Amino acid sequence: MTDFELYFGLGREHIMDVTAYDHILFVIALCTIYQLSEWKKVLILVTAFTIGHSLTLALVILDWISVDSSLVEFLIPVTILVTALGNMIKRNKDFRNTSSRTNYFFALFFGLIHGLGFSNYLKALLGRDTDIIGQLFAFNVGLEVGQILIVLVFLGIAWLLTMILNVTRKDWILAISSAVAGIAITLMIETKFW
Asked: What Pfam families does the database record attribute to this sequence (predicted)?
């Protein structure tokens, strides 16, 4: 197995790990207001998240920044909650006019926070005598592929429920966003940050 394959697998597994479901929740929250036909917007959105994630991973691994892990553990569910609440506010608007640039900015910014969550573990894996840039690249490509798989499954389920079972888009957004917000609040309460 090459280094690329190893770190690609780590990135994909990191985003798809159901025991560390905070990233899955965030990706779901990001995609809730979109439909399958808007896949290009969603692809840009998750790529913005990956760019933010990648930037802070690199900054921590290169020892350019350091952030208290308990603060990060608290901020990650905060980003999920803010995204879910934003969806609930937007649910009554015409989604064709939803500001994509604002969504992309928040995905990028919140990606910065999520990148801090895995950085210490990845830093310990990489060590100092290795091709850090190549390994970071492979990890982030794996992360992006994992996110795209999550998005495809989620948008497929959304399409089935809204198109075939006639669940309204507003009801879908409210139900998913409320559930995600509830889980995010629970995660915030469980952190040691308090």
From this structure: HupE_UreJ_2
